[in-house]
Amino acid sequence: MNGMRYWGAIAALGFSTLSGHAMATGPRAAALDAYLNHACEAGQLNGNVLIADHGEVILRKAYGYADASRNVPLSISHRFDIGSIGKEFDATGIMMLAEDGRLSLSDPVSRFIPDLPPWSRAVTLNDLLHYTSGLPGIDKNTVNNDADALRNLRALKQLDFPPGTQYAYNNNNTFLRRRIIENVSGMNYSAFLKTRVFPKAGITDAVIDPVDGIPRIARGFTADFKEDPLKVRLSGWPAVTVDDLFRWSNCVTRFCLITPDSTRRILTTGNPRWQTGFGHGEMDGDHLIRHVHDGSNYNFEALLMADPIKGRTLILLTSQNRNDVYAMADAINAILDNQPAGVSVAKAGATSTPDTRADLMASGSLRTNLHTGVVKGDICMTHRPEALSGAFVLNTGLNVAKVTDGQGNAVSFDGSYGPDIDGEARIYTVTHAPPMLCVQYVGALPIYPAHDAPGDFKGIMAFNGDSFRFSEQSAWLPLPYDPKARVRAGDMAYHLDVTCDDCRFIYANGDAPLEGTEATFHSDIARPPMIFGGTGPITKTANVTILNESVDATSSEAMSGLVGKVQSYYQDYMGKAMMDRPVFLRMITIDQVRRDRTGSGWGFATWPTIAFSGSVGKIGTTLLAGGDKADQEISYLAHELGHYYFGTLVRPQGPYAWFLLESNAEFLSMKALRAIRGKAAADKRVAHWAEQAAKQKEAFIPLDKVTQSGDISESYRYSYGPFLLLSLEQQVGEKKMRAFMRALLTAPVITSWEDLHRVALGAGIRPDDWNHWQKTCVATGKPICGQPAATLTPRGV
């Protein structure tokens, strides 16, 4: 990187200044100390902080108490649980052994732990480093030590997904990395760190798996000063000082233990949002130019943020109530860049990384009760887009009790009702927009245990006594809102503690469902925020998780097998594998009595959640029975899975939104049906489109004349639209049609016929073919395009 200065001397500077308590003086150090003191006094910070800039440590200080008694102040030498940051040590250990020639990242796990089931022959060390192994998470109900974890792995019959195809961040990967280090090195993991890792990194004060009685161990505690136990579920977790973590950061930057190539191999993933053994980072040639990793456990939260180009390192080790360390880092970076602490990172040009926290982030707690409908929330939002920072929307059934800036300072607000707001939402405007906006709220919603409500739709918060459903449309948490554009935030990353009294399980869209009444959910990838809880079971198969319904093994495997086939076909056709494991969610709607009486089904896809009213297991039974009804279920499931591409990877907007969203998914479902069940089944589906489209009394608005989303009616999007796509394929051939569908995934927002035309030309469709299709099919507004439906098979590739 030409013109960039790398602070290679930072290690020497850091090591020399850490021997005493001296810090650089000056206005920035004073401003940082004032901000952190204020955060501590407001109850937002209890922990130790080290800040270096331009290769010089400018602040190194303890704030708060060592334990919940509040009798012992923290010292700079106290050691903190750093959670997942500790995974950097075992990731480094794997690469050290690889550099020694004792293992390869392509080696299967079975080479080192031979008594594991057959799946271990498919999982490689590279999969373990990048969390693409397909291993499920640690079962907290049955695992209390290493022996329990190993026993569960030996009993594991199948992975959640084929290795290397998806990403699932969990500690079974870490557990196996550490066991492999032990088996290859011939020493236990703790001894390996103390012998081969810590000395060369300059780490002198770390403790592995601390227990009661060891001095200078900071204890975690809640906001109301209830202390965490020193409980170690799995071994190998270090407690460190800010000094030792600073030395470790310098070691990683200077490649003191592994080469730049090994570091690059750790940081290289299939998706920049996926975590690695080093968290997140970026290299420029043989220079590490960014390194960000956070970790948490109980009420501890830690952050390591390094920008070697600026010679800047931020280390925050906190122990109370899981403080929002990223929000504090934003303020610190703003001060370092001579901006007000209230300026966001995006404005201040600070070192926080777009890959890890550019997305809107929601953190906090939510509590609800299945049988009373009471909802209590305490949610903070950070990284709000500027246009959405001055207001938020919240469900009208919820009452705002308090709005603060996350540092204990009240933020004035005013509420109003907007009839044009999607779902049951009320608009709240705030007098100023701090980087963090925290909302405390409470409400009680109606319960329909008899399932006899007059209606139900996705945009409400629904309770029926057996389950609750809070969709992203229902505004169950505060969603940043732009009153001028009348647009509210959609996807967000999250870290949420959820309690549901009387629930058997709780599920947050984008994280694994968990059994019990309490759960913590986390996603670094922005998701539509949906929470669901119920009294039914969790059923896992090879390709899908089924929630809230007891489904026999035969039916669940039938559904799993179908999902696997559709995923495989879509990966080949669209050129992209599906990320995440689909979750089939059984809803008992609050108006289920009416639906059962009228035979009305209902569902929705909010990836990776696919929700069904009525029985999920009945789908499996129908698939096993075969025939036309089975083909209909295949089409339905394939359509919903198709929304991963059109609805998740790409979010259509403007006049063509419904066509691109639903018609594309329906077209894909027909292609999948043809691949799985044959031409006859696909022809019947096409005939069904033609039949439904023919019921339209008037001609459809030609696709090239569409000017608003309302022009695309329900019959248009599900029947006429996919028929048009099929006629295009018949005109241009399957190969170019596939290129066109793939091109739609990366195209700019399509708002006009001309935009669609440009995508087609870019995909290799000849102008003559496109114009012929426009003239003979599009312009007529008729479904048959002058040809019988059965003859519309693709011409030669």
Automatic annotation (TrEMBL):
Protein name, per record: Serine hydrolase
Residue ranges constituting the Beta-lactamase-related domain according to the UniProt record: 48-334
Domain (Peptidase M1 membrane alanine aminopeptidase) ranges: 632-746
Annotated TM spans: none
Keywords, ordered alphabetically: Hydrolase, Signal
UniProt GO molecular function: metallopeptidase activity; zinc ion binding
Keyword Hydrolase: yes
One Pfam family, short name: Beta-lactamase
Range of residues in the leader sequence: 1-24
